[in-house]
Write a structure and sequence with these properties.
The complex is a heterodimer. By secondary structure, chain A is of the alpha+beta class. Chain A has three domains: 38-132 and 192-240 and 246-278, Aldehyde Oxidoreductase, domain 3 (Alpha-Beta Complex), CATH 3.90.1170; 141-186 and 282-439 and 567-718, Aldehyde oxidase/xanthine dehydrogenase, molybdopterin binding domain (Aldehyde Oxidoreductase, domain 4), CATH 3.30.365; 443-554, 2-Layer Sandwich (Aldehyde Oxidoreductase, domain 4), CATH 3.30.365.10. Chain A has 16 helices and 27 strands. In chain A, helix 11 runs parallel beside helix 12 (507-529). Chain A is globular and about 75 Å long. Chain B is an alpha+beta fold. In chain B, a hairpin with a 2-residue loop joins strand 1 (13-20) and strand 2 (23-30). Classes of the chains: A alpha+beta, B alpha+beta. At the A-B interface, helix 1, helix 2, helix 3 and helix 14 of A face helix 1, helix 2, helix 3, helix 4 and helix 5 of B.
């Protein structure tokens, strides 16, 4: 195969290369490891959400046969500074006696067997001086990031934005619409709970961790334990679902500290119930959207206020106002607050920022369309933003118009029956919403080796969270080098490999781009050695064992991260639209998804098979958010009411029909990355809630503005 | 408040004969040891995954005497004389993948892969039970296995594909 005709790998529906490992049980997740001498750890969490620890009596727990140690704060080695990462907690664990949220770790049981550790855990006797909890609605509110310098900007998203006089514009608008939208706290609920296995050898630390961002750990543990980051070895090839909750959290630090304290490897696999307080959640949010438009539905003013809960000491801002670039609008006014309550730290969750924001904005747009008497899709087209409405910059690439048109065609939007067609006991309704996503870019690094036997090895420290990333890397390399794709393998999931960006989403952009650049460097090296066109013939003719390329995909200005285009002069976003048909049983309050279409303008698709899976999966998340998912706080104790998968509803197979069509508009974004791709990871989940709420309205004529749309809410609204 | 701090005795162990993926084993276990923890921590068959440890997620599904069960909800001592099949036992002795494994690959019926061993075992049983008459039936009978990546439509398609290949 010559290099010229080999360039068909990108865009082909390659099957996952790691499939055989996952399908036979051979894929090793962090908790599948067991070095000799490993102790099993179980955390003891605070049973009160506010107050202080008075005494901890570990005697009875220590007396359990097989228990080696029960560690409290004073048993831990001295801990150096915890580094600050966006969306990660900073308060050191088991330091001081103050309790800020339920489940905050107060002790660690270490035992020779898991059974002994579990037996001893409830025997750790902790006396608390409980203090009143602070519940949502009663917490202190804090305005974040005022443009005049008041408040603090916690991260680049969610900063206030104001252009024009929104009060005056709302006053004078011919059509006004305002409503508040609520979404509950929800947990990530990955099927693999987080786990850390830590093993010290002198000052060298080996970690097997369930993580989406292994590059965080060497600098973190170097800081906390005063060692060289090069002596922190992280092994994390497979992560059993992340969805935003597997970055840095305190259980990781505690496992490492415990292993140091007892001088043996420590395996801490969070119990399902512990996960609810250990790795964040998407916070309860209230949003108010006010729109003003002319009689034809052209937006004149858009005002958006957001408040989310966060912890008493840890701050997380859910940047829902980042949807403000979706529509052309002369007057825009957005701002956010946090509210401090006695819960743990919230965290990003599939999909943060625009996920919550579009629930409010797209619901309001649907309601405005109804008020003005225009089809919801037509209203969106009338307010189409040809350039970034915030900055005036051109889009790096935007084919939302095509995404709308193709999605509407696939769904049969324009010919759809309206308003509660009956099918037995069910009333049928349809709805739609737009999607917009931010583009957070980071550098990635990869090394590529072409050996004289014709094989290619890509080396980069990514984790596999299920996006198909390794397969995509082989596709990119096949086209870049011009070798058969079956010659290409990937080494990943080990910090001895080149350090790359986090695997939160958009990782194809950073590491895929790095692979492309490394391959181009490899080709240049090869060209210097041989004039033969075929790379395999060339490497053989050169008489070398291998040719290597290693590159980092840098961002303009050499920054560590840029948002929505950074200093490129372009505005970078992803776009799309969802169309849903639901069935509502008005007697029972049931809602069922019948069929759906998701249509997306998200840059070049490297692998349509894995991309479809990614979008289908996040579509199901959107359905879960719309109709079932909620984590409830006990109204007297501020403890999560259900900390198990039996009491928390998440979608099961029976909830998700086969008739969901995923459509990608043909697109290549030359500015976003060297491979034309943008991030799609969680994008299929955004806007589904608003489309579903519209479809429910179409079916039964009531608006539900608080998620999830449960039978009780529906029946109350219909009563 | 002080309590009596008697040393709690090491629990007694019991001899259990159990066949795992065709291999006869005789093991000494505590009565409280679950089949899941024993498979994973004692004999190193880590393909079976722990998701919730309370029978809610299905990620530890194994076949016990041909029936699909949550390994976290069974004690090893209950398995005396039983035959257990885990994901490691699905492929043929020469490594040839089971039709259900091949169908999962073809349909991209998994993402992170953590629930996949349980889904595969459940799918084998679902087909054997004859619950593959329609997509709706498969969705219902595969709903004991949660997939948070939500590969549900692909899982359903894979079960239908494998059922057809297996003549069900």
């Amino acid at each position: 195969m010559s290099s010229a005709d080999a360039r068909t790998a990108v865009g082909s529906a390659r099957t996952r290369i790691e499939g055989p490992l996952k399908l036979t049980g051979a894929a090793r997740y962090s908790m599948d490891n067991l070095p000799p001498g490993t102790l099993y750890a179980v955390l003891v969490g605070a049973t009160v959400a506010s107050g202080s620890v008075v005494t901890i009596d570990v005697a009875e727990a220590k007396a359990v046969a097989g228990v080696v140690s029960v560690l409290t704060g004073e048993d831990l080695p001295p801990l150096g500074p915890v580094l600050e990462f966006p969306g990660a907690p900073v308060k050191k664990p088991m330091e001081g006696d103050q309790i800020h949220f339920e489940g905050q770790a107060v002790a660690i049981v270490l035992a020779e067997t898991l059974e002994a550790a579990e037996e001893a855990r409830p025997l750790v006797s902790v006396a608390y001086a409980a203090e009143p909890v602070v519940l949502p609605g009663a917490g202190e509110r804090q305005f974040l990031g005022a443009p005049d310098g008041d408040g603090t900007v916690w991260w680049p998203y969610g900063q206030p934005f104001a252009r024009g006089d929104s009060a005056a514009a709302l006053e004078s608008a011919p059509v006004r619409f305002a409503a508040s939208y609520v979404q509950p706290s929800r947990h990530h609920n990955p099927i693999e709970t987080s786990g850390t296995l830590a093993s010290w050898d002198g000052d060298r630390l080996t970690l097997w961790d369930s993580i989406q961002a292994s590059m965080l750990l060497p600098p973190m543990f170097a800081s906390v334990f005063g060692i060289d980051p090069a002596d922190v070895h992280v092994i994390a090839p497979f992560t059993g679902g992340g969805f935003g909750c597997k970055g840095f959290w305190m259980h990781q630090l505690l496992a490492v500290a415990a292993a140091k304290a007892v001088g043996r490897p420590v395996k801490l696999h969070l119990r399902r119930g512990d996960q609810y307080n250990a790795t964040g959640f998407q916070p309860l949010m209230t949003q108010r959207v006010e729109l003003g438009a002319d009689a034809e539905g052209h937006l004149q003013v858009y005002r958006h206020r957001v408040a989310n809960i966060t912890g008493m000491v840890e701050t997380y801002l859910e940047a829902a106002t980042e949807v403000k670039a979706l529509y052309e609008c002369p007057v825009i006014d957005t701002a956010q607050e946090i509210e401090r309550v006695t819960v743990g730290m919230p965290s990003p969750m599939r999909c943060p920022n625009e996920g919550p924001g579009l629930w409010a904005l797209e619901s309001a747009i649907n309601e405005l369309a109804h008020e003005v008497g225009i089809d919801p899709l037509e209203l969106r087209l009338r307010n189409y933003a040809e350039k970034d409405p915030l900055t005036g910059r051109p889009w790096s690439s935007k084919k939302l118009r095509e995404a709308y048109a193709e999605g509407a065609e696939l769904f049969g939007w324009h010919g759809r029956p309206r308003g509660g067609r009956r099918d037995g006991n069910w009333l049928i309704g349809t709805g739609m919403a737009s999607a917009v996503g931010g583009t957070m870019r980071m550098p990635g690094t990869a090394r590529v080796r072409l050996r004289s036997d014709g094989s290619v090895l890509i080396e980069t420290d990514v984790q596999d969270i299920g996006t198909g990333l390794q397969t995509l890397l082989t596709q990119i390399a096949a086209d870049e080098i011009g070798v058969p794709i079956d010659n290409i393998d990937v080494a990943w999931g080990d910090s001895a490999l080149p350090t790359t960006g986090p695997i939160y989403g958009s990782s194809t952009m950073h590491t895929g781009s790095a692979v492309a650049l490394a391959c181009r460097e490899l080709r240049r090296e090869l060209a210097a050695l041989s004039s033969l066109a075929d790379p395999i013939e060339a490497v053989r003719a050169a008489g070398v064992e291998e040719v290597v390329g290693e590159r980092t995909s840098q961002l303009p200005g050499g920054v560590e991260v840029d948002h929505d285009g950074g200093s490129t002069g372009f505005s970078m976003r992803t776009f799309g639209a969802s169309f849903v048909e639901v069935a509502v049983d008005p007697m029972l309050g049931l809602v069922r998804l019948r069929r759906a279409v998701g249509s997306y303008s998200v840059g070049r698709i490297i692998n349509p098979k894995t991309a479809r899976s990614q979008m289908l999966g996040s579509f199901a998340w959107g359905w879960g958010k719309a109709t079932m998912e909620a984590s409830e706080l006990d109204p007297t104790t501020a403890r999560w009411l259900s900390k198990d998968l039996a009491g928390v509803h998440i979608p099961v197979n029976a909830d998700i029909p086969g008739d969901i069509t995923i459509n990608f508009v043909d697109e290549y974004d030359h500015h976003a990355s060297p491979i034309g791709a943008k991030g799609i990871g969680e994008f299929g989940s955004v806007g589904i809630d608003a489309a579903v709420a519209e479809a429910v309205f179409d079916a039964v004529g009531v608006r539900i503005r608080e998620l999830p749309i449960t039978p009780k809410r529906l029946l109350d609204a219909l009563a | 408040m002080s309590r009596d701090t008697q040393i709690r005795e090491q629990p007694k162990t019991h001899e259990v004969r159990i066949r795992v993926n065709g291999e006869e084993r005789v093991t000494e276990v505590e009565a409280r040891t679950s089949l899941l923890d024993w498979l994973r921590e004692a004999i190193g068959l880590t393909g079976t995954k722990k998701g919730c440890n309370e029978g809610a997620c299905g990620s530890c599904t194994v076949l016990v005497d041909g029936r699909r069960m949550n390994a976290c909800m069974i004690l090893v001592v209950q398995c005396e004389g039983s035959a257990v099949t885990t994901v490691e036992g699905l492929a043929g002795p020469d490594g040839e993948l089971h039709p259900v494994q091949r169908a999962f690959s073809a349909c991209d019926a998994y993402q992170c892969g953590y629930c996949t061993p349980g889904q595969l075992i459940s799918a084998v049983a679902c087909i054997e039970e004859g619950h593959t008459g329609s997509e709706e039936e498969v969705r219902e009978w595969m709903s004991g296995n949660l997939c948070r990546c939500s590969a549900y439509p692909q899982i359903t398609a894979a079960v239908m594909m494998a059922a057809e290949e297996l003549g069900r």
